[in-house]
Design a protein that fits this description.
By secondary structure, the protein is an alpha+beta fold. It contains eight helices and 19 strands. The protein binds flavin-adenine dinucleotide (FAD). Keywords: FAD, Flavoprotein, Oxidoreductase.
């Protein structure tokens, strides 16, 4: 996304990726991602989310592949649950369209979800589901069309700011650049010196459960959702593969990894059983036996807000890391904000809570 934005504004762009772009190792893989506008993380994000939506529309205009399908979104839980309160308060603060559905409304309109009598669903019409690999590929093609050069399977070993240039070291040698953007996802600690107490890779697990009535569980009929319930919390993604709904459990710890390469492929039986239990209890149209269980990793900061801005080490190095499980939906705007920073040193779209220098002692 950053390469697309930089190339669009006329910069001469070189992208180094240790794998391909896209790939199945980083934080952007795994079939689906959620877009939401009513944001439980706070109304400060809403202007960036609205502008991101426009950029997604621009990216997919005239493309054969849809990257973002708007299907609406639900936050489901008791009205006094933190996240339910947070979305209602965000919708009111930012004056966003929404509906609060009680358990009877939900049973009638969205039978894919089983609610307790005292639960509600808060509907956000400006939500949808991404195909992230297609989105990354589309952005790459757009960047290449505008002149960007992708050096795939080329790992950056070191970034060295010198007086005239910033040097990039790879196994193929060193190359000098005027500016460098670091957007290394979960590998953040390899090319910055924040340290694992500030930002660290964590493991996320997703499981696909067969839908008994597949059409009922596709985006045409089923919104994306986030569930908060004493017996399970999860993100839920409608069927994209013709077979199953993806569930990403939140009520189980997201283990911190020392290194991204430590990501275990296999998942403890307790994690699967607990998610099966939540699905059996809360998703009546799914067979509570997952046919696929996969693991991914993402860089999380200690305050769970991204790190975006010029580094403390050298302002010619701009950081866009630590996306903390949120980054896909606003990634085009992160690219645009970073491009502003490369161009002018700052961005009027930047959000204070993402400030790259907010952590004492870290930030190169
Ligand atoms: C399972 C899961 C579910 C998620 N769900 C959502 C969601 O529903 N909605 C949402 O908005 N967000 C979600 N997120 C978060 C979002 O997907 C991420 O924040 C976003 O994709 C991060 O993108 P990135 O470009 O920062 O990182 P990545 O996609 O990981 O890209 C980093 C790239 O840097 C490359 N790289 C790293 N180090 C080097 C090096 N030394 N040299 C060369 N290349 C290097 C990697 O190969 C990789 O291609 C989720 C994340 C995960 C893991």
């Amino acid at each position: 996304m950053t390469a697309w934005q930089l190339a669009k504004r006329g910069f001469d762009v070189t992208v180094f990726d240790q794998w391909n772009t896209p790939n199945d190792r980083g934080a952007s893989a795994g079939e689906s991602r959620i877009f939401r506008t009513i944001y439980k993380e706070g109304p400060d994000y809403v202007p960036v989310l609205k502008k991101s939506y426009d950029m997604w529309e621009e990216l997919q205009a005239n493309q054969a592949t849809s990257v973002l399908q708007m299907c609406g979104g639900l936050m489901i839980g008791r009205p006094d649950t933190h996240d339910v309160e947070a979305v209602i308060s965000c919708a009111e603060a930012a004056d966003l369209d929404h509906r609060v559905l009680n358990s009877h409304d939900m049973a009638r309109e969205y039978p894919q979800f089983r609610l307790d009598d005292d639960e509600v669903g808060v509907f956000d019409p400006a939500s949808g589901v991404f195909r992230p690999e297609a989105a990354v590929l589309t952005a790459r093609k757009e960047a290449e069309r505008l002149g960007a050069d992708f050096r795939t399977y080329t790992r950056i070993l070191n970034i060295r700011p010198l007086s005239q240039h910033v040097m990039i070291d790879t196994h193929d040698g060193a190359q000098a650049f005027d500016k460098v953007v670091v957007s290394t996802g979960p590998w953040v600690n390899e090319l910055t010196d924040f340290g694992p107490d500030i930002v660290a890779p964590r493991r996320l697990v997703a499981m696909w459960f067969p839908a008994r009535d597949v059409p009922l569980h596709t985006p045409a009929n089923m919104p994306i959702s986030i569930r908060r319930h004493p017996e399970g919390g999860f993100s839920c993604f409608p069927v994209l593969d013709g077979l199953g709904v993806k569930i990403l459990p939140h009520h189980l710890a997201w283990a911190t990894l020392d290194q991204v390469e430590d990501l275990p492929r296999f998942v403890e039986a307790d994690v699967v059983r607990s998610t099966e239990h939540a699905v059996a209890r809360l998703m009546p149209g799914l067979d509570p036996t997952p046919f696929r269980v996969s693991t991914w990793t993402e860089g999380f900061t200690k305050d769970e807000a991204p790190i975006v801005g010029p580094s403390a080490q050298d302002p010619r190095i701009v950081l866009a890391v630590g996306m903390s499980g949120q980054g896909f939906k606003f990634s085009p705007m992160m690219g645009s904000i970073v491009t502003d920073m490369v161009e002018n040193g700052s961005s009027t779209d930047a959000i204070g809570l993402m400030d790259a220098q907010r952590f004492d002692g870290g930030g190169s």
